[in-house]
Design brief:
The complex is a heterodimer of chains A (300) and B (174). In chain A, a hairpin with a 2-residue loop joins strand 8 and strand 9. Chain A is α+β, with helices and mostly antiparallel strands. The relative contact order of chain A is 0.13. Chain A is elongated. The termini of chain B are far apart. The chains are: A alpha+beta (300), B mainly alpha (174).
């Protein structure tokens, strides 16, 4: 002989919501319980009445014809109208013509990692390039080095940049990779909080000095870039532009100063060297697992 | 996009529109949210890896869009105006049923947005609790507690309805 299952609140709610249809035994047990408990039976009836009233309230909605623009939205992306400030337009001009043929995406391996248009990466890579500059840098990200090591074009020195620690703002580093666009190298760092994701792209630039934040939008992507000393930073996010600028300020306040180191660390790979494996998610990786550079063909 | 995925998405559009309208009670806002949802789904289609139902995936996107919407408008309550209800919802066959609908619309409007969303997912769309948890990104226990609190509020709203509506309700319930 088996004991009748104990009927809990969740059983009553599930019964009222019609969620026990696939569990005949539990449904029968609930019905037996309700037959013996009038108060519970009345509560369940009230829930069923409310559910029926809600369905009746919006019963006609499913009968309405679907406008054509919804069907189009499900078939082809729409270019959104965006309104830029003069400052944003100035920042975005260099990107706009490239965006027309731009593809998407970097970082699909990360699942929820924010997307990046390849056109933006190309524009970013070329933004500060000098005509006679050779491959701008090699890059390494190493836990043991606590930062990124960048080789200048002349191989005459190395620049160390502390990886921005955004944990105080609720963002964890979830991915990092080397992105190669033509002859230009960049480092992409992806951070994620409980609600937002951001990409941070770093590259060496020949000029010094610092620049103010410049921002623009591309489709649903907010872009903010600035420079600090020998490094250009670019932040992308799917958050609204204003929020992206807040994130950029957050990053800017966290980034430590770049510094030259000498001699070059032994763990830095030669330019073009690739290491198998793309375990890019999770905790910072040792330099030995430095990711292979992403080729442009992988960016679409 | 594969024809199969496109076909599945298109089948869900009426449900997305119904939910969005029930949540916002504003046709234009609802359609805007659905439009954003569909565009986002199209862009993010690679993230749907044929695990789980397309319905859950789309509703998850829609839910996020609606959360963003309510965050923008800085309010999670919407008015239940009789005129709006009369013009937009199903026309019940008699006055008593109309009163019942009116009561329910007003009661739903008094719920905080996160409770209203859970009630609509369960009662209107017939989603299971774990599916709602996945869509809203909260534990199943939280879904249940929100549902319980929402239903208690609905019950109190019913009991607080004007006498003429209570009479109508009582006749319906017989």
């Amino acid at each position: 002989m088996t004991d009748a299952p104990k009927i809990r609140e969740i059983d009553l709610m599930a019964y009222a919501d019609g969620l026990l249809e696939g569990d005949a035994a539990r449904k029968a047990a609930v019905e037996a319980h309700l037959a013996a408990n009038q108060a519970d039976a009345e509560r369940v009836r009230a829930i069923m009445r409310d559910n029926a009233a809600i369905r009746a309230l919006y019963a006609a909605e499913l009968e309405r014809p679907t406008p054509a623009h919804f069907l189009r939205a499900a078939r082809e992306p729409r270019r959104r109208k965006r309104y830029f400030s003069p400052e944003a337009i100035a920042a975005g001009l260099a990107l706009a013509f490239l965006a027309a043929g731009g593809g998407w995406l970097v970082g699909q391996r990360g699942g929820e990692t924010a997307a990046l248009p390849q056109a933006y990466l190309q524009a970013l890579a070329q933004q500060h390039a000098e005509p006679d500059a050779q491959p701008a840098m090699s890059a390494a990200l190493g836990q043991n080095l606590h930062g990124a090591l960048l080789s200048a074009a002349t191989n005459s020195g190395w620049i160390e940049i502390p990886l921005p620690d955004l944990s105080a703002h609720g963002f964890d580093l979830i991915e990092r990779e080397r992105v190669v666009i033509g002859d230009e190298d960049m480092i992409r760092l992806a951070y994620r909080s409980s609600e937002e994701t951001l990409n941070l792209l770093l590259r060496v630039r020949p000029q010094g000095g610092s620049g103010k934040l410049r921002s623009t939008g591309m489709d649903d992507l907010a872009l903010v870039n600035w420079s600090s000393g020998p490094i250009s930073y670019a932040l992308t996010s799917e958050a609204p532009l204003r929020r992206a600028r807040q994130m950029a300020e957050m990053v800017r306040g966290t980034v430590g100063a770049a510094r030259f180191v000498d001699p070059a660390p032994a763990t830095v790979p030669e330019p073009g060297e690739s290491v198998a494996g793309d375990g890019l998610l999770g905790a910072p990786q040792p330099a030995e697992s430095f990711p292979a550079p992403l080729q442009p063909s992988q960016l679409n | 996009m594969s024809d199969e995925l496109q076909w599945m998405i298109e089948r869900q559009i009426p449900h997305l529109r119904r939910y969005a309208f029930a949540l916002t009670r504003d046709r234009d806002t609802a359609d805007e949210i659905v439009q954003d949802c569909l565009e986002r789904a199209l862009r993010k289609r690679h993230l749907w890896q044929r695990r789980g139902s397309i319905r859950s995936w789309l509703f998850r996107i829609l839910h996020r869009q609606s959360v963003n919407h309510f965050r923008r408008v800085r309010g999670d309550h919407v008015p239940a105006e009789t005129g709006v209800i009369d013009m937009t919802v199903a026309q019940p066959p008699d006055q008593e049923a109309r009163m019942e609908c009116l009561n329910m619309a007003e009661a739903l409007d008094r719920l905080p947005a996160e409770q209203r969303a859970v009630v609509l997912f369960v009662a209107l769309e017939g989603l299971a609790y774990d599916e709602v948890a996945e869509i809203t990104g909260v534990p199943v226990g939280t879904v249940r507690s929100r549902l319980s609190r929402a239903r208690e509020t609905l019950r109190l709203s019913r009991e607080a309805a004007p006498p003429e509506r209570q009479a109508a309700k009582l006749r319906i319930v017989k």
